[in-house]
Structure to design on (191 residues):
């Protein structure tokens, strides 16, 4: 029987699966989707190649798990950040600050890499669907402020957020970036 590295077999399996997902995220961000192979992922995770197939039937299935895992983590953090924000402006502020903190933690890396990647249509569609769902609280807050076109406004703010996340990626302090980004957003929304 193989050695397990956790108190229970289910915990061991969860750790192994998480290690494969982390390895895939690193490879994806560094080299793109074509480099996410069972051999590369298991080597990066420090596992035997056959163990890959105990968790995922294919590289595509692993990429799907990366997508779901990244958005689940980000959405949970975002929901927590929005818990105490009651009015639309506070929800926009909380969303922007949380999004930049997620960027500082590197949690947007998998989604960003997958959105740039040449993926199968169903995987690309799922990434776009999850991305839209992630941005729904921002769209709702903007709509509550009654701008003329909340979806377009959210799309434009999303572009500003992408630039802000790039600044964070390049080492600018997240709170400083958030303060400047929010000043621009509030000026643009006229509030």
């Amino acid at each position: 029987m193989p050695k397990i590295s956790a108190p229970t077999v289910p915990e061991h399996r969860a750790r192994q699966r998480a290690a494969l997902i982390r390895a895939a995220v690193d490879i994806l961000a560094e080299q793109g989707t074509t480099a996410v192979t069972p051999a590369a992922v298991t080597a990066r995770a420090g596992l035997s190649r056959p163990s890959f197939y105990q968790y995922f039937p294919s590289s595509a299935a692993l990429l799907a798990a990366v997508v779901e895992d990244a958005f689940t983590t980000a959405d949970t953090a975002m929901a927590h950040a929005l818990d105490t924000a009651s009015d639309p402006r506070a929800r926009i502020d909380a969303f922007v600050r949380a999004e930049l903190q997620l960027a500082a933690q590197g949690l947007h890396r998998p989604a960003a890499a997958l959105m740039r990647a040449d993926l199968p249509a169903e995987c690309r569609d799922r990434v776009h669907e999850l991305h839209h769902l992630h941005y729904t609280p921002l769209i709702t807050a903007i709509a509550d402020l009654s701008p003329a076109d909340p979806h377009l406004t959210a799309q434009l703010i999303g572009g500003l957020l992408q630039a802000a996340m790039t600044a964070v990626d390049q080492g600018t302090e997240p709170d400083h970036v958030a303060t400047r980004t929010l000043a621009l957003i509030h000026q643009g929304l006229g509030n």
In short: The CA atoms of residues 84 and 145 lie 18 Å apart. The chain has a mean pLDDT of 88. The domain at 63-189 is CATH 1.10.357.10 (Tetracycline Repressor; domain 2). The radius of gyration is 19 Å.
